[in-house]
Amino acid sequence: SIRIDEVAFSSYPFASASSLVSEYARAQEKDIIRRLNEGIRAKGLRWTAGKTSVSSLSFEQKKNLFLRKKVPNLQGLEYYTGGVFEVLPRNYNVPVSPAVSQLVSSFDWRSRHGQNWMTSVKNQGPLCGSCWSFATVGAAEAHVNLYYNQHIDLDLSEQDLVSCFPYGGCWGMYVYSYPRLFNHIMQQGVVDERCFPYVQNQWIELPCSQKCSFPEERFRFSGATVGGSGLSEADIKRALIEHGPISAAVVLPEGFGHAMTLVGWRGVGYNTVWIYKNSWGPQ
Questions:
Q1: CA 102 to chain centre
Q2: Angle CA(89)–CA(131)–CA(173) in degrees, nearest 5?
Q3: Of 52, 59, 65, 127, which is least packed with CB atoms within 10 Å of its CB?
Q4: Bridge-based pairing state of the strands 46-49 and 80-84
Q5: First-to-final CA distance of the chain
Q6: Per residue in 196-240, pLDDT tens?
Q7: How far apart, in whole angstroms, are the C-alpha atoms of residue 170 and residue 161?
């Protein structure tokens, strides 16, 4: 039994436990960004750290962005807000081959003939490892603009591929499934976003049957070329110039990969800086 002798009431707005936790997390993130930028300046690196749509995610949420649900050493990439982010050491220099030296030093589909031919940056969210779908759809949307030489700016459905391609899903997709993916798009196509809106939830994977019956748009490849690690730097650059943005993957030293849309490059000394359209939101 409990005996209560007195009850006191105060109108002072005490902070709730959840607000205190959120405040602590924001302070912790701010401190991490400060220390990252100090380290970047000390090492003479060429990028800037800041708050992004990924930096404030929990460890469990970050796991969902990667294949096999393991977070690799991102070397600060989740805090990247601008500049040149390097995975390899600064002293990594290779001679420029004659095939590469014949090409332009920089190329970017965000700035060709005075226009940005890419569609807006999307966000796959922390609950679905669907980077492979966003990388492919991002390239497809840009190819439509280039084919018609005007800003059609389709908003195609990433969910269509996540739900309807049998070798993908929210748990990621292996690189060797890309030939099957492109065959799927050639045969079945990709509908517009309104027909099948994106839902970033790995636990409730929407069945393909939830796609609308009469989409406003349906995109199909007439053909596709699948490259691989055997492609040379010159091959990739020529493909970007001659055909448009590419669905590509970056493999980190630990062997983990993340797919994005490759839109161009910039030469920095002997090195090539590749430019990607990511799927982690505009910031």
A1: 30
A2: 100
A3: 59
A4: antiparallel
A5: 56
A6: 999 877 666 789 999 999 999 999 988 888 876 678 889 999 999
A7: 10
CA distance 235 to 100: 9
No. of helices (H) and no. of strands (E), the chain? 7, 8
**278 a catalytic residue:** yes
The DSSP annotation for 232-258 comes to -HHHHHHHHHHH--EEEEEE-TTS-EE
Q: Exactly one of 64, 128, 131, 170 is catalytic; which is it?
A: 131
Structure tokens at 56: 């404030």
Q: How far is CA 226 from CA 40, 141, 162, 214, 260, in A?
A: 36, 18, 20, 30, 15
Q: What is the pTM of this model?
A: 0.79
Q: What letter does residue 177 receive in the DSSP assignment?
A: G
Encoding tokens for residue 54? Answer: 């990924």
Q: Is residue 95 predicted with pLDDT exceeding 60?
A: no
Cα(258)–Cα(131) distance, integer angstroms: 7
Q: What is the mean pLDDT of residues 143-147?
A: 95
By DSSP bridging, strand 80-84 and strand 246-251 are unpaired
Structure tokens given for 150: 């005007």
In the structure encoding, which two tokens stand for residue 247, read together? 């669905």
Catalytic residue among 145, 164, 184, 278: 278
Distance CA 271, CA 25 (A): 37
Residue 283 to residue 277: CA distance in whole angstroms: 12
Rounded distance between C-alpha atoms, residue 273 and residue 283, angstroms = 20
Average pLDDT score over the chain = 85
Query: What token pair was written down for 36?
Result: 């990252």
